[in-house]
Amino acid sequence: MWHPRTLFRLLRTALHLLQGSATVALIYPWLGEQHRLALKKRWSRQLLAMLGVRLRYQGALQNDATLPCGLIVANHISFLDIFVVNAIAPTAFVSKDDVRSWPLIGWLCTHTDTLFLERGNRSAAQRARENLVNHLRRGKRVALFPEGTTTRGDTVLPFHSALLQSAIDAGTTVTPIVLRYRADDGSHSTAPAYVDDVSVLECLRAIADEKRLYAEVVALEPLATVTVDRRELSARAHRLIAHTLHDGRGASEAVPALSQPTAQPVAG
Fold this sequence. Notes:
Distance between the termini: 26 Å
Helix content: 25-40%
CATH class: Alpha Beta
């Protein structure tokens, strides 16, 4: 049986996705960049609120700071990660090419500055890297998930270092961020984990089934890219993210209140 709260949340989310598609098709192309970024941030916050997800900021994001421009690297748990980051700082994402085929979400990603990477195609990968470097040189914020796949959020897989070369070539910084999801009682939640054979709908249902879900975003200090190679840069970012994810706080231990109050997503 589906809980009435779950059905209500999923219905609102479906309508929000349709509304977002219409907005992107009819209005988005005519807006200036600042208005586009503001719209992406507001829409992402509304989506999280409809699914019962609340944001918690830590590290450099406290005191209403935002993520710096340049390359953002993060551990990867779910497609929800994209909207969590966008709800804080609107960002262009590097994504695997098969996301294009996802219902509604794929279309939205395609038309909102996502940089797609075709796997197994060296020339396409080179074009994607050049496109990424151009974005970074223009002072844009771009995020990628160097693990190349998703996890249950309790570990960090080895990073693929190739795309981190773009930050070195563009002369910009790399900012590691840590993503975590917790249930209402403070325990680690695997509800958003988009792993194994879980479908998008099954994952959305698991998220909506939670009474309340907290998305924690920990921003670490930006890493300089001068005098380092991509493997060294990748290893350092991985080490920082893994250490922060496993910083000694047990998965079953409730999260204490942050110095800033929990961010309240904009109402839908």
